[in-house]
């Protein structure tokens, strides 16, 4: 996730990007997108905005290792780790975000804590996609919907691609058609004033091909399986939150 943000921001104007990691291979993988790479965490003291992009179980160790001042902003994206847990460990303003991998291409969907978000963080998020400001109590479900969501979409996209292959399309042909269909449908939802149900109806003509396929989906438990997947991800985010509070 950190690499995706870095790569996305490298295409935006006005940012000096410093990548810090103890793993030289990790630094090498993002060197071309960074102004500077280093293994020295003290460099964080020189930044206006510090993004801590690590796993939930080590985020507090990283925060304790960097000395930030009250005029700096600390952004975390660790699932389940609330701003309340982090704030006692730093003087910086703490903002929690949940982006996703599409930040790399400028198509990110992100959630951010509305009580602490700053204009600098808004500008960063806006540079790599779309974002919503939400109550921190809603971050677990946001983590499941937009943080874990790309994997669920990839799964469904792959199923549609495979159907194309099974029907005789070449693998690359089916992948292009399926991926562009998901992309176009998503953009239509974002730009249209119609509800999703209305958009479905707009594609379905009586006795046509689409309604035939939709009847199969409506008669299946496909929607319930997606809801269950999101719920499972949300539940795990809440478990991580309890674990971070216990520490």
TrEMBL record:
Its EC number is 1.5.1.2. Keywords: Amino-acid biosynthesis, Cytoplasm, NADP, Oxidoreductase, Proline biosynthesis. Residues 136-240 form the Pyrroline-5-carboxylate reductase dimerisation domain. It comes from the Archaea. Residues 1-80 form the Pyrroline-5-carboxylate reductase catalytic N-terminal domain. One of its GO terms (biological process) is L-proline biosynthetic process. NADP(+) binds at residues 53-56. It is found in: Cytoplasm. SUPFAM superfamilies: 6-phosphogluconate dehydrogenase C-terminal domain-like, NAD(P)-binding Rossmann-fold domains. Pathway: Amino-acid biosynthesis; L-proline biosynthesis; L-proline from L-glutamate 5-semialdehyde: step 1/1. The keyword Iron-sulfur does not apply. Gene3D superfamilies: NAD(P)-binding Rossmann-like Domain (3.40.50.720), ProC C-terminal domain-like (1.10.3730.10). InterPro entries: 6-PGluconate_DH-like_C_sf, NAD(P)-bd_dom_sf, P5C_Rdtase_cat_N, P5CR_dimer, Pyrroline-COOH_reductase. Belongs to the pyrroline-5-carboxylate reductase family. Catalyzes the reduction of 1-pyrroline-5-carboxylate (PCA) to L-proline. This is Pyrroline-5-carboxylate reductase. The lineage of its organism: Archaea, Methanobacteriati, Methanobacteriota, Stenosarchaea group, Halobacteria.
